[in-house]
Specification:
Blueprint lengths: L1 H19 L12 E6 L3 E3 L3 E12 L3 E7 L5 E2 L5 E3 L6 E2 L5 E4 L2 E8 L6 E13 L3 E13 L17 E6 L1
Parallel strand pairs: 2-12
Antiparallel strand pairs: 1-3, 3-10, 4-9, 4-11, 5-10, 6-10, 7-9, 8-9, 11-12
Length: 170
């Protein structure tokens, strides 16, 4: 009888220990992603807005180019207001080619140094000035990400980049 009582007692403790030991395995997201991030989603006319392009999990990234589109009636940007981020450890060219046309900023640059297996970071920063009131959408288009051999980065075909809506008030 005493032995049966000990078995029940130990079984209870074993059950308690195993039920409390629920370690959740949260999977790490290793998929390629690109995000457009604004410093604010509402600004006053005449004020500045900082926008960055963030890249996560780019497989052996050698070069990146894209176009950032905006409403030129609501926002302005100059080449002096665009700078590269920390995505590339040794970017080339040192001053990336930047082209601004009516409502579009085109940027392209790459890695001069050693290529990392996976790279994440900020591709670039842009500072826009709000010109008038209204709602404007910023979005990335024509993105191209390649490896050193010229092939596309894994996951580029499935990449979705959300736009950012900015409200400009008086």
């Amino acid at each position: 009888m005493k032995s049966l009582l000990h078995i029940r007692k130990y079984s209870f403790f074993l059950l308690l220990i195993t039920s409390c030991d629920k370690e959740e395995n949260i999977p790490v997201d290793t998929s390629l992603s690109v995000r457009l991030i604004a410093s604010s989603y509402e600004i006053k006319s005449g004020n500045s807005l900082s926008v960055s392009v963030e890249v996560k999990n780019a497989d052996s990234l050698f070069a990146l180019s894209f176009e950032l589109n905006f409403n030129p009636d609501l926002f302005s940007v100059s080449i002096a207001d665009i700078s590269s981020g920390n995505l590339f450890s040794d970017p080339f060219p040192a001053n990336p080619p930047i082209f601004i046309s009516d409502g579009q900023v085109s940027v392209g640059f790459g890695e001069w140094g050693s290529i990392q297996n996976t790279v994440s970071g900020t591709a670039c920063y842009m500072i826009f000035t709000a010109l008038s009131t209204g709602t404007g959408t910023l979005y990335v288009s024509s993105i191209d990400m390649i490896k050193k051999d010229g092939s596309e980065i894994d996951g580029l075909d499935n990449l979705m980049i959300d736009s950012v809506e900015i409200q400009v008030i008086e």
